[in-house]
Amino acid sequence: MNITFLGTGTSQGVPVIGCNCEVCRSLDFRDKRLRTSLHIEDQGTSIVIDTGPDFRMQMLHNSIHRLDAVVYTHEHKDHTAGLDDIRPFNFKQQTDIPLFGTTQVLNQIKSEFAYIFAKNKYPGIPRVMMHEVSNLPFDVMGITFTPIQVMHHKLPVFGFRIGDFTYITDANYISPEEIEKVKGTKTLVLNALQIKPHISHFTLEEALAFIEEINPESAYLTHISHKLGLHQKVQTNLPENVAMAFDGLQIST
Ligand SMILES: [Zn+2]
Ligand SMILES: [Zn+2]
Ligand SMILES: [Zn+2]
Q1: Residue 226: nearest ligand to its CA?
Q2: Cβ neighbours, 10 Å, residue 230
């Protein structure tokens, strides 16, 4: 399985509009973070987790020419706003694109993108197929996704385990039962927003504590704010098996 980090930034992205901090002014390409999203390629099957507002640029930057399905973690705008831009895949592939999400996520998409579901559709709008999922393993084009239900303040959000790879983007609490599903994973991606406490995301310290508990071969931090600091500086102080993810980073499992 080939994995590409399409975006590793928090909801405002990095740099933040109008911000003059050293991270937002940094010339290091790793300090330029589009909104969090992931691409999975496995034997020609192409799946994206979340369609944030930067979806279009992410498809272009990473030369993604085919899309078989979208899997959603949760309904926040930084994970859904780019859905309209699946249209080129509809046109090219002449298919509807399957969307996988909980009832709550799909209902939110139906209300925020009401025109997609209108009775009398305007020509050329996105074409999708809705697939409701619950907190049980489900199949996406032959790939098994096991949801990890994590808490994002008071909102339940899905992380996913796919084989030995686990991806958790928006969490500040994971219950003991759900932690059981993460145990034994070889590669763990986890959100680490900033240094200071936050209402709905792990801090760097909390993320590192969870990584230590799971003890994967390698861990990557994502959903990063400009407040976390310069990529290069933060990376220097991380344990050996932990890396800051950055946009465009590719790994294989
Ligand atoms: Zn988010
Ligand atoms: Zn800044
Ligand atoms: Zn969120």
Answers
A1: 2
A2: 17
